[in-house]
Every structure is written in structure tokens, then in C-alpha cells.
Amino acid sequence: MGISITELDDTMQYPPRKRQRPDDTSNSTRTVREPRLFVPFRALGIITNHIPFVLQTRSHKGATDGPRIHILTCLGRSWALWEGGKMTLLFVGPDAPELITYLVMDGNAVWATSGPHAIKYIRGKEVLRITNPLELPLSFMAIFGTQLLALTDDGSRMFVWSTTTGDLDSSIDFDPEFTATTILHPATYVNKVLVASSQGSMQLWNIRSQTCIYKFPMASLLSLPSARSTEPGNAITALTQSPAIDVVGIGFASGNIVMYDIRADEKMMRMFMEGGGIRALGFRSDGQPILASASAVGHIALWDLNEGGRLLHMIRGAHDGAISSIEWIPGQPVLITSGEDNSVKQWFFESPTTPPRLLKYRSGHQTPPHLIRYYGDDGKQLLTASRDRSLRCTSVVRDSRSFELSQGSLAKKATSLSIPLASLKFPPVTSIAYSSTRTKDWDDILTAHTDGPSARTWTMLNKRLGRHTFEFSDTVMRNKGSKGKSKVRHPLGDVKAVCVTACGNFGIAGSSTGLIHLWNMQSGIKRKKYDVGPCPEEAATRLDNSGNKGKERTITGIATDALNRVLIASTLDGTLNFFDFQTTKLEHSLALPSAVVSITLNRDSGLLAVVCDDMVVRVIDIETKRVVREFGGFRGRVLDIAFSSDSRWLIASSLDSIIRTFDIPTGRLIDAFKTSNIATSISFSPTNDFLATAHMDSVGVYLWANRAQFAEVAFQTVSESDIEEIGLPSMQNATDDNGRFLEGLSALTMQDAPIDVFSTPPQLDGELVTLTLLPRSRWQTLLNLEVIYQRNKPKEAPKAPEKAPFFLPTLPGVETRFAVEPKEIKDDNNNDTRRLENLTPHVESVFYKNLLAEDINGSYNNFFNYAKTLSPAALDLEIRTLVSMDGMDAFLNALTQRLLSHRDFEAVQAFQSVFLRTHAEVLISNSELRTRLEKLASVQQTESHRVLELLASSLGTLGFVRDVL
Questions:
Q1: How many domains does the chain have?
Q2: Which domain holds residue 122?
Q3: Do 497 and 607 fall into the same domain?
Q4: pTM of the predicted model as reported, rounded to 2 decimal places
Q5: Distance CA 765, CA 7 (A)
Q6: What region, left, alpha or beta, does residue 758 occupy, with left being phi > 0 and alpha being psi -120 to 50 degrees?
Q7: Is residue 106 part of a domain?
Q8: Could you report the per-residue pLDDT of 607-629, keeping only the tens digit for each?
Q9: Are 524 and 598 found together in one domain?
Q10: Per-residue pLDDT tens for 910-954?
């Protein structure tokens, strides 16, 4: 994977650890049931959070392409390791018991603090866990040789552990007025660390002797005698070592930056950065005396230390949120930053005097996405929209393929105007529609935005904003006096819903005033206009303000069928309007019992799912224009719905934080599970393999694997008591030594405990007649075997095959087969006996042996099971070879007993017909078989009469049901 990681030392012995299933921290005591239909699989789009990243460089002997760069970022309860050259994801660590508060790297090992634990990982596996004896959470951690230094969350104590054994070496208690926040090991200082506090002071400690060597008061660091230590702006938020020995850089929450000589105990220079407190500091190490500082509002400042701390450049809006960490690559003019906007960026400096340019980055949504939809038919891409005003394409198969659709050169404009970049972006997306049919020819995505009077096109192929903007406005010519006339546009409402036809040629948008316009996606020309008209009487009587029938009606959803024959539009007053796509004529209006929030159409099946305000999802057939299913039981407003590709399932998420799956043919709830966060949007893969969900308070997109694709799942009705909470998917499931998923495979291939409802016993009831379940052609062939022989009789005599040489004996037949003479065994004593045995015909076949081996009063199960495996020609031959009286008597008894057991009815009829037709003369001439024949005739007449009665009753019931429905 591009990283060299050594194996564990064989001499190191670690205590065995039970692997636990990743679970939510707030629900650690609950019991998680086994998944029924959807299994947590993976989280997408999470790059980093507010925890500072860790930069590691590795130089290899003989390497010509420079050192390898690795970046370690925090993902909440797990961590990710990135390759810095191309920003590709190497691997993701397992979930920690609690949220990770700090990360460090020690060679090949990754250390993470999680609650009161400090956990050591090697190759993504936990090998050592250290626990705070006071059970207090740990907030900061630093590697000091073979020792691990950690601060408690309250800043009152520092622990020193051994990194190899995990033993506690020492513990240091700080003064009550000193709250430690950061630890720094000054270069060349043996056994000494510098500890910063939230009061603005620092202390130098010897960790071996556990003594405080020197204290740096806040007044001497800032040279502000009047400053008080209780002020929040005096807290030290950044502490870093400079290239010069004894000099450190100190950043304060007030925005002050101080260069301080800790040996001489004097301040060298002081700078001030506007726009929030200092979050991180970094010294350039390639010979240029430049200091980079990051603020809490996303700005980066570059200071020239040779000029007394003169400001060189200010990169405003480098991140859309607070910058958590900033690091220079050793020996290179490249600056790496990470922010709370879920992004990691690399900045390249052409020269010390020119502003940097963005070299490469990896980013995700800054705020939780509220709208997600699968793009295309391969199920490999997701369109995601968020409140951060961005539209992104998230790849399901590889993180490096994810990108944000460009809205133009906004960064340069934001820099020139000194305003945040997010303020120049379009408002948040409220509706997405696409068609990948003509994606290589013109724009294929159409979006509606919050309180926007226009819809915008996008192109997935070029990863940017499209050419056209579809506006809802009327152009009016206004007279400007002597200067002539000017065009004035009056808005006709805000766009609420959009749709792209299946052919990809037309884009449709509906407004809040009840108007629907259709544009050509290639040229951007408006082609047609649809009007829903006044509110129908049946819908107006349901409204409280019945006098608003003639006023504006808000469009909440638009859909078109696969052949562009009908256009369906839903309104907020609870109606579905069906238009003729070509003539724009309103053909039918369907009034629903409640207001319509949104609609989703499955074009293959013609089923329209309607989300109503009364917490009921109704399924409508667009051909008959009737409600065919109603799904309720929601304890909160329905947020989003999705169809499966075969239209058998309908998945819905609601405000009660439950994701429900309904089986449309049966109308049953077949799966439901509760998540820790509310699922605001869902989308089902076109290939039926994954369900994608977006949740509140999470910037990621979560995938749930469909178990029905990998194992047999018993679809049973789910009750409210069966709904339990399931933890959200992690970034990666646990793997074994070969990299195979452990939890994912076991959950996907797990067989359900209940008996498969589709399997039936051999016989439902003793009073019913059971058939053989074999094809009808088998018994038809047996009955008409002679006719088939005559029809397939060759017209010409078969030609004799070419003979082999005379010295190679051959066997008779169509194919040439050589005869192998068996070796003769001389036995003078029993020659006559062996000759007699060879002349004795072996007439007892397996068919005959099974017939005689059965009990005469039994049901002949083994005999009929064997007979059903034979071909029609073999069965005909076996029946014809029944020439003895014992064989015929046993066969007649077998047919009688099988009819009495009500099994294999059609097989018995076929056997009986062939037997009687073949041996009729023998049966008539032998009186000893008369009794068997009479009993068989009586049983045959009784069973045939009963079968006819059952068929007649079934046909009558079916006809009655058909007439009633």
C-alpha cells in the first residue's frame, strides 16, 4: 500500500483482547440484534475533524523521488492514514471505544487517546491499551523517546507510561492554578518538557526527577503587566519548536503570537493576527525564515521573521472553518493544513515573496448532507447536497474519485473581495434530478435551490456548472422616456421541484405559484408550459381556508414516465395532476386526504410513491390513477423514500429515526431498524446492493449492505417490539490477517433462524392429493413412447462403422470401441460351476429389487422415489420386463397402496396405463391376479372421483373471487 510497516517483535507478548463489535458510545449498554435485511457496511466522505493531523516523513536509502509523506487524520472514533504524494487513502483503523481526542505516531505505531485509554495500533490492529488509573479522560499525548506523556482532560495531572510494556513510570500533579493544555519537548533538552496552560503561563519539567525546573509567567510571555490570567484570551492554544535552538513559537487565544527564548527567558518578537485566536503555528524548515499561523476563522498568515515579524501574505478563507493543524513538509516549500471543514489541503510556494497556490487537497462536506441520490445505473456514484452550498459526487468504490462540482472561479473572486468563499456559492440544493442518457452530449443534472427563482443545470462529465439557468420570470418592456425601452423581469415564484425526462432532452421545473415550465436541456430554450389551474372542489373542502381555491398552488413534486406520455405534478393542497406530455392538457386530478410533501416515481413499473403530511405513504399506479397501497405506522414526519430497482421494496425514513422497508406486493413491513441519528435522506442502489443514508450531525454518507443479495432472508412481518437501534457503519469493518472483512461477511452470509417460508413439506395434509412435482412432459412421454419411437425411426439403415485393423478386436456399436480380453484364471476344480453361473441370466434389476423389498401394506416411498429418477424409456423397459406373476402382483399392490397414501397421483396414472396396455392379455388369462385388479379398480375410482371434486371446488372458489374483485 505504499508504506513500509514492520511486524511485531516476536518477543513482545500482549494480553489477549476480545474483539468487540463497533457500537455507539451513547448506547453501549444496549443489546444489538442481528441484522435482518440491511447490514452496516461503510461510511463515505469523512476526511478529518477538529483533531490535529499527524505528519510523518520517511526517507529510504537509495530513493530518488524524495521522502515519503504520510498524513494521519482523525475520523471520530477511528483514524485514517493518507499517502501525501497523491492524497490516496492507505487504510482506516478500527473503531475506538470512545471518540478519539488526540493522535500521535511512533515509527510504525499509531497512538490514539480515547476516553481514559491510550491505544496503540500496528498495521491497523490494536496491540496495546493503557488505561488511566484515575479513569479520567485523556486530552493530549506526546511521544518522548520510549515514554508516552499524556494529560488528563481537566489539565491537573500528567502521566508517563512506557510505550513498550504500558507500565506507569511516573505521575506529575500540577498546581491548582495551572491547567495544562499542551506538551512540547524542546530540541536538545534531555528529560525536559515544556508544558503550556490555559492561564497563559508555561512550566519546564524534568520528567525523570519529576521536578519543575522553571516557571514562565503569562506577564513575561506577553509583556502585558495589566493582563489577568483569568481572561480567556490569554490561554495558550499553540506551542511549537522553531528551527533555532531554545526558541519556541507561542500562540494565544487572543490572536497574539510570541517568539520566546526559553533559555534566556526573554521575548524575541511579537505579532498579532486578526480574525480569531491562534489555532496552530508552523515554522518553515527549508532555509526560509517564515512562520505560518492559522486562525479560528480559517485564515492563514505568513510572517517574515528576518523583518521582525512582518506580515508577508494573508490567505483569507483558506478553510471554511477553524483550522485545526498546520505543518510544513521538512525541506520542501509545501504547507499542509487541516480544518474543521472536513478537508486537508496542501499549499505550494513558488517563491518566498509570492502567495501560495493550492496544490492538492482531499475534502468532503462541511455540514451534514441533507439530500443524496444515486447517479447512473452502475451504483458507483452518489450525488450529495449539503447546507454548505456545495454539490458533490461521492464515489462508492474509491475515495479518490470523489469531487465537488465546480461553481466557477469563486476562490479568486472571494480573495479579491475579502469575503468568505461560501457566501459566493449558490443557495443550498433542495431538489435534484438527472438523466445519464445524454451525459456525453450536454448537461445532465438539474437542481433547485432554496428560495431561488431559477433552476440550474450541471454536467457530470466536466464536473462543473452547466451552461443554462432556467428562470421563472416574465419579461416586460418598460418605457424609459427618451432613452428607449428596457427589459424588466418579474419573478413568478421560487422553484420547488425539478425533473429531467428519461431521454435526457428536457428539464422540467415547478414553482411556488403552480406553474410548470419545460426547457430543452441542450439549447436552454423554453418549450412548453403546464398549469395546474384552480384547486379542485374535493380538495378545497378539506382546506381550512376554502376561499383560496383560485390562488397560487405550490408544486411539491414533478415526475414523467419512461416514454414521455404523461407528466405528474403534486401540489401542497393534496392533489396529483396528470398532464398529457405533448399537448400540456390536464387530463386528470386526484385528490388525496392530506397535503403532498414529495413524490417518487419508478419509471419501469409505473408506481408513484407519494409522501403525505398525515404520515402515510401512498403508492399510486399511474396507468389506472388509483391508490394501490397505503403504508403507515410512522411516529414522525416522513423525510425521504426510495424504491428498489425491481419495485418490490419501498424504503422510508422518518423523524422517529427509524428506517422502514415495505414489501409492495404483500403490503407488509419486512424490515425496520433505528439509528442513533435521524436519517434525513436515503437512496437505494440501482444494482440492489447498497442502501445509502445521510444523517443529522454527521458529514458522512453511510452504506448499508443488502443481505438479500448474498444470503437467503426470511421476509416476515416486523412488529414494533422488533425494532431495535443499530450503530451507524464505521469507516471500515474489522479484518483478519488476510485483509478479509470479518463482521461484514458473517453478517451478510448469516442464515436466518426461522424456517424458510417458501419451503413446503412433502405432503401438506393426508386428506389432500399430492403430485410428484415433476414436469408434465415426463409422463406424456411415457404414455406416448411408442408413437415417439415410430416418429424418430430412421429412414435409412445405419451404416456400419469403419472396421479397425484385423489385429485390433472391436466391440459392436456405433462408436469404435476396442475389446480388451480379460485374463483367464485357471481353476480346474470349479470349471463346471463357473460355466453354469455365467450362463444364468441376471434378471433382477434395481427396479425389481426395490419393488419386492417394500412392505406390502406400506406406501412404497423408496420404490417410487427411485422410479421418478428414471427416464421415460427406462421406465417403459422396466414395466415391460415384469413377466413373472410375483412381479405383476407386487406392482399392482404398489399402485394400489400409493393411491391410498394420496401421493404421486399423476405418476400412478401413467404407470397404470403403460402396465395395463402392455400386460393386458396376461392379466386376463390369469385368474390369480383378479383380486388385485378389482381392488385397484375400486381404489382408482374412489380417488379419481375425489380429485375431480377438489378441482371443481377450487375452480368454483376462484371464479367467485374473480367475479367479486
A1: 4
A2: 49-173
A3: no
A4: 0.73
A5: 64
A6: alpha
A7: yes
A8: 999 999 989 999 999 999 999 99
A9: no
A10: 888 888 888 888 888 888 888 888 888 888 888 888 888 888 888
